[in-house]
Amino acid sequence: MSKRLKHRIRRLDVSLWTLIVPPTVWAVHFLFSYLWAALNCAKVGEFAKFPTLFAVGTVLALLVIAAAGVIAWIQSRMPGDDPPHESGTDVDRLRFIATSTLLLAGLSFVAVIFTATPVLFLTDCR
Amino acid sequence: MSASAPSSPDALYAQDRTDQNDPAIRAAQEERLRAVWKPPSGLFLRWTDVNNNRVGVWYTLTAFGFMLFAGILALIMRAQLAVPDNDLVSANTFNQLFTLHGSTMMFLFAVPMFEAVSIILLPQLLGARDLPFPRLSAFGYWSFLIGGVFVTGSIFFDAAPDGGWFMYPPLTTRTDLSGLGADIWMLGLSFIEVSSVAAAVELIVGVLKCRPPGMRLNLMPLYAWYILVVAVMILFAFPPLIAGDVLFEMERLLGWPFFDAAKGGDPLLWQHLFWIFGHPEVYIVFLPSIALFAMLIPTFAQRHLLGYPWIVLAAVGTAFLSFGLWVHHMFATGLPKISLAFFSAASEAVAIPTGVQIFAFIATLWAGKVKWATPLLYAVGSLAIFTIGGLTGVMVAVAPFDWQAHDTYFIVAHLHYVLIGGTLLPLFGGLYYYWPLVTGKKLSDRIGRSAFWVMFVGANLAFFPMHLSGLEGMPRRVFTYPAELGIGGLNLASTLGAFLFAAGVLMICIDLCLSPTRPKAARNPWHAGTLEWLAMPEDEDWGVRSVPLIESRYPIWDQPGFVQKVDEGRYFLPDAEEMRRETIITSVIDARPIQVARLGTPSVIPMITAVALGSVFILTTYHLYWWALAGAIATLACVLTWLWTGTAEIPEKPEKPIGHGITVPLYLSGPSASGWWAMFITMMADATAFSGLVFGYYFFWTIHPDFPPADMPDPGVFWPMAALGLTVIGWAATVAAREIHARGQVSAARALLVLAIAVTLASLAAGLAGPWAAGMQPKTHVYPAIVWTLAIWTSAHAGIGAICQSYTLARSLGGKMTPAYDADVRNISVYMHFLLFTAIVTYLTIGLFPLASGGAAA
Amino acid sequence: MLAAAVSACNRHQSALAPFGEEAASTRALTIVLLVGAVVIAALVAGLMQHAIRTPGGRLTHRQGMRLVLWLGAIVPTVTLFALLAASLPLMRPAPVSAADLRVRVEGEQFWWRVAYAAPGTSPVIAANEIRLPVGRTTMFELDGGDVIHSFWIPGLAGKMDMIPGRTNTLVARPTKAGRYRGVCTEFCGLSHALMAFDVIAMEPAAFDAWLTAQRRPAPPPAGRGAALFARYGCGGCHSIRGVGPDSAIGPDLTHIGSRRTLAAGILPMTTANLAGFIRDPGSTKPGVRMPAFPHMSDADAVQIARYLEGLK
User: Fold this and answer.
1) pLDDT (0 to 100) of residue B853
2) Of A20, B155, B195, B249, which is most buried by a Cβ count within 10 Å?
3) What is the C-alpha separation between B519 and B36, in angstroms, rounded?
4) B3 band by pLDDT with thresholds 50, 70 and 90
């Protein structure tokens, strides 16, 4: 990754809103999965054998979460003092939010995979 | 922040406050603080107090009382089930017992207890003098008391709800199958839900805006993180239930058939709305206990908690995932297996953050030098019980296993392991830990430990056998069971265990009763490192002597001379020069001081408002609609008086110094003000309830091949679009008034507000005109019923919008709002944004969806 | 004590004593889950005890974080994912063909309306007892009558709700002949605890013969009991095929004498129980819809009971 890009990423603003981006993506993907299956079953009576829409939605969700995770990973490695990053400085606060976002991205990534797995095993509306 | 303040308060720490050196000055300050924070006295007036110390204690004691009451109900049930074919109580009584046991434990104990404890602890943890809206806390308490007594008292009149705490229609909506009890449940608990949401608003704003200077997000005590997360969960979990309650009572009182399959309704809609609330609810009552652990484990491990960001991950992750679990309560309702599978997957994923939480505690204990103490015994013991409940939770997340276990005693065992290990025992642990903070005295270690072991054995003896009796074919909610099932022995063991558990609770009650006879303990008796332990054994009502600058997660351990500096008023705001109750408001992320807020003083208004609002719900239960309407008008009058006299007050001077050369304003408006946040958060809850109703509309569309039904009238396009257009104009006029007002053109702003009032009222009428002109009959079918509901909801909000606008106009005319002090118009702008959102969704749905779906218009 | 309690447990209404394929596979799953849960609980408890006993400073910050990462996050994630992947295939319902027996069951407060529809024949109406052929697939079609009930035969398969306005299906295949019992598992009102039914799994040939016999109407009414049945207006709610008009409000009584129990699996089928239930059903089942007949004499009740018992 280019140095300039890394520098740019480090300067991105973080807040409580950016912290919840990964789990929000999970929530949106979950709702999407549920509605996709429920509407297909209620209105079409089956869901397609090759659920393209579902696959695209899942890949998209994983990409957004991964992007949030990468940004958070770079930000969490801002130079500064040693872990556990618990002093009242700007950089420690940034690294704390970045680390938490990174962890949430990990959890959300796994949770999206969990949510998508059933489609591999169950292929009808019974 | 004022221009005179440096960019960061950190640099100021080096400079000590020499102006506080003189003991005489300090004594005078203390005298003023004491006078300002003096509680009201007198037989009646003492109940008008709003200080968090007092209201929190009332709240806690009341919730504790409801817990004991619900526990006694459980003992009667266990006595009935001790032997097969028993007839100690009738089926009718038994159904009331289990309904009230569950409802009381959930609505009147677990959630309020968390809020009560937080009302006591949060200001202490944050070094604030009080919560941002003390009168709102008092209002929440009185609402809780009135609603709780109303609901629980019904059992003494044999009129208690008897449909289970989940109240599934049609059993509970058919008035030939259920009586007054259903209305008492629905209306009484709706009232409590309102007070829970009010407390959530208070706690969120408290955590975000009332932290001490320097307490950035990464230094917040973990308890505050959990409170923030849990309060936000309440905000999104309770409103769907409130939406469900609205539909439920419309069916019971007016005959609108939302859950009546014969008229197009569906009982499953209730189950969705109930469990969207019901599952997050489990985590709402469990996370605060983990929060207590996160405070007491570092104290007894004598080190910082390991993995702070991991705990934040666990709290936030659990909060999100818990909203994707609700259908696992509906695994046996016959939904498509693929739908169940999504929820099964999420139900398993939610165990991951819980595992992280538990292992962060284990790692902390491992790394630290453990000092064994009674609160730690409770923490470790309840984690052991909770782990068993969590593991059976993973078992029932597996759908095929759940099809066997669902609605049997296996689930009763599972949920009691979770709630005893995840709520009740941790609270007792918290009681032993924080009792010195509240009373200045320690509880008995001997009694505490004996009680723990009695309860530990009792809980396992009571609930472990239930796993087996469930798999052996014993369904839940049965008032008796036949001897031939061969589960008499297991049930007898459960009954013995339940009484043993009750004996342990009794021991704790005795310990509490003995407390007044004991001497005061030392300050900070556990040698903890967090701010709440600044409290003195002889409690002062001012909270902290001076609001500290925070540089560590454990300031008492890490910041040299910390306690002394706080006590000598060497930090911020050590005085009450103007004889006003004050606290410091800081920015959300980095906790920079931005305002000194004047707080509410003791007042009878919160109590009267609670009584008035309670009367609306209670009178409606008895179908006394005119009286209820009078109560509603009285409530409105109370609320307006409260706002007029107690909020957005123009200060006598624009700003004041808080020490260390920092001067901050006394008044804020817009997104940095606490009042703005309260409005925003309240409206988030409101929008969530609304989305529950909209979900209803589209839910009916999915279950019917023909919806809107082709042979039914619909509101047409004209009136909904007219209502939408009028709402847009009303919104634009309000926002324009705000902008023009800020530029000093007061008269023009007033004129715009007048226009906004007229147009918003017109949108109210136009919204109702659609279904009215089309002659839609809500009793005949669910389609007209849900259209009417959406239209009424939106129009009612337009009506409230007009009241808000009129109030703002009156504030301007009354000289209580000026271009420099314009919180009122900024706050109602937030309301108008949400009104606009509501109107867009409603009118596009009822006006245009019939065209899009090719239904009635085709 | 626990062992004694288990050995005392029943074999006819238990998820741990399966007589069908679905319940048997769920029992196997239960055992796997249970063993896993016990192992994990023991490990966590042991680790917690070790953590408390270890003196301070033995675990560095870095090691502690590694513990949280591996034992708190990665191991649970992998375990749970394996569990998910293993359990999803078990959710697939067994295949059904058009030739399979269909049994329609409808829940009412507090009894069960049953209709057997073998392919190509008209349905046979019965109540409060379900007979099934061993080794053949049966599809249950479950309807909600008045309120929500839930249909559970623990030894056969998992439960399924009966919801007004919806029809749910449940596929099962019994493997062992015998007498079993099912219950309502969704709270449905006052006598929810008293809403059960007998399940009799039969060899296929015996089942076919039984179903043919059930198709027969009752013998023509004769005797005082039949006359009293008509006089008290029992036929207003209960059908006895071949006798009087059809009415579907209460349970069908055409072959009530052949059932083992009375009042939806609650009382043994004896003359005294029948007579008592006819006069005052509410004392056995609170909230029951059937009215009491307080002015009916004991003798009349016994006569009606004898008549009904004769309807084999």
Assistant:
1) 78
2) B195
3) 29
4) very low
C94: pLDDT confidence band, cut at 50, 70 and 90? confident
C8 close to A (CB below 8 A)? no
Is B267 an 8 Å CB contact of chain C?
yes
Task: Summarize pLDDT for B172-199 with one digit per residue, the tens.
Answer: 999 999 989 999 999 999 999 988 999 9
CATH of the domain at B829: 1.20.120.80
Neighbors of chain C by Cβ distance (3+ pairs < 8 Å): A, B
C172 touching B (Cβ < 8 Å): no
B323 and A16 within 8 Å at the Cβ level: the answer is no
Of B497, B524, B558, which residue constitutes the final position of a domain? B497
Q: Which of A85, A108, A123, A126 to mutate to test the interface with C (most CBs of C within 10 A)?
A: A126
**Beta carbons of A85 and B218 less than 8 Å apart:** yes
Q: Does A82 touch chain C (CB under 8 A)?
A: no
Phi-psi region of A125 (alpha: psi -120 to 50; beta: other; left: phi over 0): alpha
* Residue B170 in domain: yes
Question: Based on the structure, what is the number of domains in chain B?
Answer: 2
3-state DSSP call for residue B95?
helix
B337 shares contact with chain A (CB less than 8 Å): yes
What pTM value is reported for the model? 0.95
C101-213 fold: Immunoglobulin-like (2.60.40)
For chain C, the structural domain boundaries read 101-213, 223-309
Query: Percentage helix, strand, coil, to 5, in chain C?
Result: 40, 20, 40
Q: Give the pLDDT confidence score for residue C6 in this predicted structure.
A: 53
Domains C101-213 and C223-309 share a fold: yes
**Closest-CA residue in chain B for C84?**
B345
User: Which pLDDT band holds residue B2 (cuts at 50, 70, 90)?
Assistant: very low
B719 Cβ contact list (under 8 Å, min separation 6):
B766, B767, B769, B770, B773, B847
| Residue B96 confidence (pLDDT) above 80 | yes
Report chain A's terminal Cα–Cα distance, integer Å. 48
In a domain, B162, yes or no: yes
**Fold of domain C223-309:** Immunoglobulin-like (2.60.40)
Q: Is B176 on the interface with C (CB under 8 A)?
A: no
Residue B15 is predicted with a pLDDT of: 60
**pLDDT, tens digit, for every residue of C138-185?**
999 999 989 999 999 999 999 999 999 999 999 999 999 999 999 999
Domain ranges across chain A: 18-121
The tokens of B277 are what?
A: 């609330």
In this complex, do C160 and B332 lie within 8 Å of one another by their Cβ atoms?
Answer: yes
Mean pLDDT (chain B) is 94
**Distance between CA B196 and CA B112 in Å, rounded?**
7
Q: By residue range, what is the domain housing residue B221? A: 48-497
Using DSSP's 3-state secondary structure scheme, residue C199 falls into strand
Q: Is C92 on the interface with B (CB under 8 A)?
A: yes
Picking from B497, B528, B555, the residue at the C-terminal end of a domain is: B497
Contacts with B320 from chain A: Cβ below 8 Å: 20, 23-24, 26-27, 108
Pairing of strands C111-117, C124-127: antiparallel
Instruction: Pick the range with the lowest mean pLDDT from A50-54, C136-140, C195-199.
Output: A50-54
Considering only the beta carbons, identify the residue of C2, C158, C186 that sits closest to B400: C158
For C20, half-sphere exposure in the C-beta direction (CA atoms, 13 angstrom radius) is 33
CB-CB neighbors (< 8 A) of A41 in chain C: none
* Chain A residue with minimum CA distance to C94: A126
pLDDT of residue A126: 82
Mean pLDDT of A15-27: 93
Q: CB-based contact (8 Å) between A125 and chain C?
A: no
pLDDT average, residue stretch C35-39: 96
Q: Which of B717, B820, B727 is nearest to B765 (CA)?
A: B727
CB-CB neighbours of B577 under 10 Å: 11
